[in-house]
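Would you mind writing out a protein's amino acid sequence and the numbers that encode its backbone to help me picture the idea?
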Amino acid sequence: MPWFTLPDFLTGYDADNAAAAAKAEAQRQALDAAAREAGKISAAEAARRAANGYGVDPTAQREEITATFTDSVVDNAKSMSQGVSDAINTGVWGILKTIPLTVWLIAGVALLFYMGGGVWLKGALNRK
């Protein structure tokens, strides 16, 4: 269970409707119990009806909605960041792979000299 409760307008949870459903379920169970005591339905039929009941618990329902909503937000954020990352990587790689290898090599040598590699290279060649 999350450490927070999302507002109802965000999750779509309806407390009044959940309370009405819990009340209706309690009434249904009371009617089934009365019908069983009166002999109108068998014990097997009462058990079948109880198994098919709605079993509404407003607190559990709110927790389930909050947990599902939170999981959905996390999943959507992950997929959105993955989509943005894929779009950037595809775009950058698409640009970089159009540059010929010779241009990369020339740029590498130019960068070597720009960063001071010419001095190191000059010293290495003079030793021989």
